[in-house]
């Protein structure tokens, strides 16, 4: 009895081992059979774009500075009668700030006194001219009488010479007095210029808005001292019109050739994520910059900001439209990137060897040579357990989908974008046959970049 039980147990164990071995062979064989992931060729529209990042900038900005140094004493009032601050609307000519003018007022008073002194000196010089003219008249009369008498018993030679010298001296004194008048006039002009300079410097202590606009930056506080030495310190930044906004975009040198004036551009900002703004290229600046051996050019994009939603210095994610097609055949870029192994290509693509086999590697080389052309590509179409190539012409691409053309391409045709090894084991309590192919969780047919380690591109 015990022997019979042992035989039964051994037979059961043998059956289990045989069944497990057979199941393992089936699983191993089927796990080696590839399953191609495919998507259909679809007909749709495409817009080819170049993406770049830029900054929203006011179209025209005025930097208001100070031409004199001193302590900021007070701020003025804006158009709403509020103290000038960030976002204040200002009109040309209103007071933005006042600098302490004590020193400049004293300099003005000094200049006024110097002008008065110079004017007094001029009057004195003019009076001296009159005096010199009177002395010249007297000297001329004396000299005329001396000439009538001449050197004689009535007029000695020394007296005669003295009258002549007195006359010449009087003429020289008059010329000197007249020169002194001109000098005094010049001194008056200089003093008046100094007075004007002092007055201008005093006026510079009152900072006024040069244009109408909005203050987008206030760079000083009350009590802060500004120093105007080599350059004017910046106090306020005024945007003339925030309804006219630009986006300054840094474009890589590889893409700048595809950008032209008037080209349509769409962009978004993180502050308003659900809205797409429209604009057009206004100018390509030629002053390129290099950062870490990368050359970029600045492109100006003009856009309308009538509703005031765009704020200065927002980061803009832009897309330059470089091409647009409608109603064309599209495939995912993965379909053009994927390439099969030589053993996966349909046998009829190779040539027969002397032994009657197929040399698939040579056929694959010819296909790769065709694919080397930049405007050509290959799509792989399932054919039973193999794939066959379909040569296509490549058109526009938006980074995810690419336009294709070809005699063998049609809408709805399945093309391979990758492959996946089948799993024959089912999950516990799934209620499915262990021989039914299973797909890993998180993977959807036709999905690209699922992260499945068994996927092959």
Give a description of the structure.
- There is one protein chain.
- The chain contains five helices and 22 strands.
- With 457 residues, the chain is α+β, with helices and mostly antiparallel strands.
- Among the domains are: 60-100 and 206-239, OB fold (Dihydrolipoamide Acetyltransferase, E2P), CATH 2.40.50.100; 103-201.
- The longest helix has 48 residues, at 102-149.
- It is rod-shaped and about 185 Å long.
Task: Write a concise keyword list for the protein shown above.
six-stranded antiparallel β-barrel; about 30% helix; OB fold (Dihydrolipoamide Acetyltransferase, E2P); alpha+beta; four-stranded antiparallel beta sheet
């Amino acid at each position: 009895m015990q022997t019979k039980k042992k035989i039964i147990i051994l037979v059961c164990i043998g059956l289990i081992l045989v069944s497990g071995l057979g199941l393992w062979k089936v699983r191993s064989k089927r796990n080696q059979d590839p399953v191609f992931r495919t998507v259909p060729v679809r007909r749709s529209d495409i817009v080819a774009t170049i993406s770049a990042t830029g900054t929203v900038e006011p179209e025209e900005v005025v930097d208001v500075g100070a031409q004199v140094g001193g302590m900021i004493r007070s701020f003025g009032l804006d158009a709403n009668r509020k103290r000038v601050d960030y976002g204040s609307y200002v009109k040309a000519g209103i007071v933005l700030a006042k600098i302490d003018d004590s020193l400049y007022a004293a300099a003005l008073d000094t200049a006024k006194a110097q002008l008065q002194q110079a004017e007094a000196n001029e009057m004195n010089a003019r009076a001296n001219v009159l005096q010199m003219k009177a002395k010249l008249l007297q000297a001329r009369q004396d000299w005329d009488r001396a000439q009538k008498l001449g050197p004689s018993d009535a007029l000695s030679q020394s007296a005669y010479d003295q009258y002549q010298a007195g006359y010449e001296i009087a003429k020289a004194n008059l010329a000197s007095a007249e020169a002194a008048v001109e000098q005094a006039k010049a001194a008056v002009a200089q003093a008046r210029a100094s007075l004007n300079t002092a007055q201008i410097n005093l006026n510079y202590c009152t900072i006024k808005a040069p244009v109408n606009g909005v203050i987008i930056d206030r760079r000083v506080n009350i009590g802060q001292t500004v120093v105007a030495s080599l350059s004017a310190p910046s106090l306020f930044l005024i945007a003339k019109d925030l309804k006219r906004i630009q986006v300054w975009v840094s474009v890589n040198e590889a893409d700048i050739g595809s950008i032209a004036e008037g080209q349509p551009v769409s962009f978004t900002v993180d502050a308003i994520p659900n809205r797409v703004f429209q604009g057009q290229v206004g100018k390509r600046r030629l002053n390129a910059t290099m950062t870490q051996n990368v050359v970029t050019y600045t492109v100006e994009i003009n856009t309308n900001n009538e509703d005031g939603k765009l704020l200065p210095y927002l980061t803009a994610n832009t897309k330059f439209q470089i091409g647009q097609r409608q109603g064309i055949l599209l495939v995912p870029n993965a379909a053009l990137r994927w390439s099969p192994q030589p053993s996966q290509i349909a046998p009829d693509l190779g040539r027969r060897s002397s032994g009657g086999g197929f040399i698939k590697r040579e056929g694959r080389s010819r296909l790769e040579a065709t694919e080397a052309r930049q405007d050509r590509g290959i799509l792989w179409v399932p054919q039973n357990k193999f794939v066959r190539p379909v040569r296509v012409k490549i058109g526009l691409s938006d980074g995810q989908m690419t336009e294709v053309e070809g005699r063998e391409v049609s809408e709805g045709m399945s093309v391979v974008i990758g492959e996946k090894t089948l799993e024959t084991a089912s999950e516990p309590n799934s209620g499915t046959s262990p021989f039914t192919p299973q797909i890993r969780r998180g993977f959807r047919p036709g999905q690209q970049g699922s992260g499945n380690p068994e996927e092959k591109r």
